[in-house]
Write a structure and sequence with these properties.
Chain lengths: 308, 304
């Protein structure tokens, strides 16, 4: 187990380095920093001094090395507009985004997995057709538009739930359901096809031939085996979930990393944007590591390194 | 003499290679899928409307009429038949704007899919055929990209560079090339073990000829299926970026851009936030239905 953790951590290094390179390149392509930070009437001499003071006159690779060295020490740059370290600003908003994502994940899984299982077991039934119809719709609707419709129906017309903000449970309902929809569709579809595949396996026939009740065959023999690939896929979709969270946050004014990024773009506080990018990437790597460990727990073949 | 016969046998083997496998059968199976028909009907309708925008749109996309601001749709009280889907805060006709925006959204997503396809397929062919360090590098890059919250990256790129049309297309194409490259690579790795490739090698065909004449036809089926799903994906991504103000810039109409205006008026003028979204969902639903039917018709085992 320890070796898996270690090898996954080592594999994550190039990904994280890649992100820092992208962040660094973007920062450079975004234009002359002195235009952004110094007053317009600043002379060329002042600009040159500024560049020298911040090491901006050195070769690009040297600048990147310095940038990386600062990142490793946890220094993501100052956000001038917020007058605080960029890292601090991002960390403050991270819990809100994680809360929203976790709620959405919970909703998606608790609905999608049973729905997918029932669809597979009762193939071509009314329930199957209905839920696959919902799946198709769920995969075709943009997250942010679903959010707008939710606001329109539940907040504007029915006055049942608050439009935006964070704090109470009621405020979490609309954003998390909105964010969950797309993952729900994906997981339900995968569970259904995974179950259909497992149900046609020999060991299922054996279990039935033994005279086991259908419920036992489904729950004990089929579901457990169908779940492993689903856990992997869900893990891979965490990136998509965080991306969807940005859109959901934008619609519901949810005070997470997504809205922070959008605010920072408007204020042109690029260190915060890039700090958010790197932080989210790091969170993502961690989550994937946990998913791998969970897979190992569910499937002993993975644990011993014999990956099928 | 013996060499001549062997040469003939090898040549025959080389010619036996499957071109686009069972194109006719595929079409027949496709024609039998009911949902596929619904999907293609939707898709054809949207494309036709987009192409014929100057003819079917009652007004120009930027034709202001300040006297007719925020008119509701025709069937509601206060609506007029002059503006079937109502008007926006500048008095621009919603129906016309939704139609013109179809051009923008389909055009941008279509071009981006093409760009991604050309690069992704080329990279996949080379990486699958030659393997080695190129393959390693490409696949590491692909893994890296797939394992990352793409939308956040796209937002950062569009914000820090400028939201020009070219940048938008590059950012969108970046999303899709990986899917092409990975699928083509694995198809090529399987195909290059087959006899017809061995035969072509034995006949002294150049790498270039083997790749273009013998390997490429084998990856066409997955490419077509991937393209349909990627088109849907990129339409949603483009509208998301435009919704945030980081995609298509006004005054060019786009569904996502119209929705961001609609959000501000959600409580007072719902039609601004509903019709552009309906267009997105109809288009994407059409493409997904069509793509599903296409995948099942071409090869039910295809998992893309």
């Amino acid at each position: 187990m320890a070796s898996i953790v270690l090898s996954r951590l080592v594999q994550a290094v190039p990904s994280l380095l890649g992100v820092t390179i992208i962040a660094f390149v973007l920062l450079h392509l975004s234009g002359d920093i002195t235009q952004l930070l110094l007053p317009m009437e600043a002379s060329e001499q002042v600009r040159a001094d500024f560049r020298r003071a911040y090491g901006l006159d050195q070769p690009i690779p040297v600048q990147y090395a310095h940038y990386l060295a600062r990142l490793v020490q946890g220094d993501f740059g100052q956000s001038f507009a917020y007058r605080r370290p960029a890292m601090e600003v991002v960390l403050e908003r991270l819990p809100a985004t994680l809360e929203l994502s976790a709620a959405a994940l919970l909703i998606a899984l608790t609905i999608a997995i049973p729905a997918g299982i029932i669809s597979a077991v009762k193939r071509n039934s009314v329930f199957d057709h209905l839920s696959m119809g919902v799946v198709l719709l769920g995969q075709s609707v943009p997250t942010f538009w679903l959010g707008m419709l939710m606001i329109l129906v539940f907040a504007v017309v029915l006055h049942a739930l608050p439009v935006s903000g964070r704090g109470s449970f009621a405020q979490l309902v609309l954003p998390s359901v909105t964010l969950a929809m797309w993952l729900l569709a994906l997981v339900a579809r995968l569970t259904r096809s995974g179950m259909l595949e497992v149900l046609s396996q020999d060991y299922i026939r054996t279990a039935r031939a033994k005279g086991l009740a259908e419920v036992v065959v489904t729950t004990r023999h089929a579901v457990r085996n169908a779940l492993v690939p689903i856990v992997t896929v869900v893990g891979l979709q965490v990136g998509g979930l965080l991306g969807g969270a940005v859109m959901t946050e934008a619609v519901f004014a949810w005070p997470g990393v997504g809205t922070l990024v959008l605010e920072s773009i408007l204020k042109r506080v690029y260190p915060v944007v890039l700090a958010a990018l790197i932080m989210v990437a790091a969170a993502f790597v961690l989550i994937n590591l946990m998913v791998d460990l969970l897979c190992g727990y569910l499937d002993p073949r993975v644990r011993t390194g014999r990956r099928g | 003499m013996g060499a001549g016969v062997a040469r003939e046998t090898v040549r025959a083997a080389a010619e036996q290679e499957p071109r686009v496998r069972g194109g006719y059968r595929t079409l027949r199976r496709l024609a039998r899928a009911r949902t596929g028909w619904v999907g293609s009907a939707l898709l054809v309708l949207v494309i036709a409307v987009a192409l014929a925008a100057p003819l079917v749109a009652p007004y120009g996309f930027n034709e202001l009429s300040l006297a007719n601001r925020l008119k509701p749709p025709a069937w509601l009280g206060g609506g007029t038949s002059a503006h079937l889907l109502g008007t926006d805060p500048l008095g621009r006709d919603m129906l016309s704007r939704v139609i013109w925006a179809a051009r923008t959204s389909l055009g941008i997503a279509g071009i981006s899919v093409l760009v991604a396809m050309v690069f992704g397929v080329m990279i996949g062919l080379l990486s699958g055929f030659y393997g080695g360090w190129l393959d390693m590098l490409v696949m590491r890059l692909a893994d890296m990209q797939l394992s990352f919250p793409y939308l956040l990256l796209a937002i950062a790129v569009m914000a820090l560079l400028h939201p020009t049309l070219a940048n938008l297309i590059i950012v969108l194409a970046l999303r899709s090339w990986v899917v092409y490259a990975r699928t083509v690579r694995s198809s090529v790795q399987v195909a290059k073990q087959r006899e017809f490739v061995e035969a072509a090698v034995a006949l002294g065909a150049s790498d270039r000829r083997i790749i273009t004449r013998h390997l490429t036809p084998n990856v066409i089926a997955p490419i077509i299926v991937i393209s349909s799903f990627q088109l849907a994906e990129l339409i949603i991504t483009e509208s998301s970026l435009s919704f945030l103000g980081l995609g298509v810039q006004p005054p060019t109409p786009s569904w996502g851009g119209m929705l961001s205006q609609g959000r501000e008026y959600l409580t007072s003028a719902w039609w601004l936030g509903v019709f552009p979204g309906l267009m997105i969902i109809l288009t994407v639903l059409g493409i997904n239905l069509f793509g599903d039917a296409l995948r099942d018709a071409m090869d039910p085992r295809l998992k893309v």
